[in-house]
Amino acid sequence: MKxxxxxxxxxxxxxxxxTVHAQNITQQQQPFKGVIGKEYSDSKxxxxxxxxxxKDAPNVVWILLxxxxxxxxxxxxxxxxxxxxxxxxxxxxRYTNFHTTAICAPTxxxxxxxxxxxxxxxxxxxHKWASFGFPGWDGRIPSDKGTIAEILREYGYNTFAVGKYGxxxxxxxxxxxxxxxxxxxxxFDHFFGFLGxxxxxxxxxxxxxxxxxxxxxxxxxxxxxxxxxxxIDRQKKATPNKPFFxxxxxxxxxxxxxxxQKWRDLYKGKFEKGWDVxxxxxxxxxxxxxxxxxxxxLPPRNPYIKAWDKLSADEKKVYARFFEVYAGYLTYxxxxxNRLIQHLKEIGQFDNTLILLVIGDNGASKEGTFYGTIxxxxxxxxxxxxxxxxxxxxxQNFDVIGTPEASxxxxxxxxxxxxxxxxxxxxxxxxxxxxxxxxxxxxxxxxIQEKGGIRQQYGHVIDLLPTTxxxxxLQAPTDIRGIKxxxxxxxxxxxxxxxxNAPSRHTTQYYYIYGSRSIYKDGWKASLAFKIDDNxxxxxxxxxxxxxxxxxxxxxxxxxxxxxxxxxAKKYPEKLEELKQLFDEEARKNNLYxxxxxxxxxxxxxxxxx
Length: 610
What we know:
610 residues; alpha/beta; Alkaline Phosphatase, subunit A; 10-stranded mixed β-sheet; 4-stranded antiparallel β-sheet; 12% strand; Sulfatase N-terminal domain-containing protein
């Protein structure tokens, strides 16, 4: 592997990293080595020197977007302009075979800890209605699963987080605490954002550090960007040479889709050709850019999605407006991230900052139902209405789409499939690449040799923590604050930064989200979808099935069929059984059992409200 950072800096850092590790991580457990006499005059003091990061150690910025499909951003062939993402990718690396867990909280838990989500007790959510009293499911990350913030703070970094956290148990999320599972309890020096899974963009459930605070009335993305900049400036004023770690996780582009008029009208009339044409155009762009294989084919439109040219004029008007707003939302998010980047340039920190940008914590959302949603009492998910009824209601509220009053704003399912081009299915579908494959951009001005390079090595969110540590020349600690740490499960991607032909080192990965599951091994993938009971109020999720009655395991060779169009289960039954056995082994090793599905959650939620 070629070493890409400055040799002198790396050698100096490597020489002291072991010493820093031993001194800092165990400092609370060190025996006193001085002398305690009866009087001060016959005693000897011993002080523990504060840990300082190595000179010129890079800053680290992790950016994690919410609910963005693979084919949305222009950086990966999408038709929604994201010039900031484009610039980072064109001067860094695009990872096209990178994966999330298929839903928000498990992705975030895995990302921050470098361990599989069920291993850190976050197989589902930290919400009371969706967590269960089992080790993999209680939504409480244990102290022996330290976060990247806890690790880097021990090595002399300041650590900041802004935006969506999503990992604090509901029962703890009041100003009465306890606070050990708030961001500051998990290693962040400062936090500004919200603790839950979603929030209103203009009336957010806002928290700063360990207390709820009042919003200033502006869009949440503007507020978190300002706060991130203020955290950095305050630190640099006090300790100019100290590096920082920033976790920037906007609510965007999760519903509700709300933004200022200039942004929601930015793409007026741009998507009138509809979702079928969008998919075809994006697919061509992805192939031309080398983002997908040259011999790839586009999967058919999901049979549950109507062809755009079969929609009524009213349907087209309403559905196009939903995506205009969404596109403006994504471009606006890109703009806010650019504000952060421009500030790093202004203060002379940009060239010494590693940026890892994950465009989405799962695939595009299917939670907008077939027809889109505007307000919570207007065709809310789980309350089926006909297209005619819903579109009529949407026309009456047409001017509300994308405004602060759009409390449940989300686009229709056809746009979710379009935004996930070239893959099938969507968010929550852990069995499908459309649920789990998200773009990753790696940017470091001093070190990436191939500007604009494309990397096809297999990766997962658990890989970013070990990647960051190896990049910095640091070891994962054996103890944090006297607590012995569990094994880091991710695989560093550093080997691939300057070697596009290096074989993948992350060779096995399981996925499970409330019934939907899959297992990956050396290019092969076995998957099982999950059909929710229509009678439990979640009928819109059935659209994951070409045949609603088909719930058999499927088998794909992703090396030859990257977007899962050819089921090989009958051709290679031995390989399928081998992978099913591997899934069982991974499930047992990672606290995944008992398997809890969406029907169980529906029953649990109903019983909890009695």
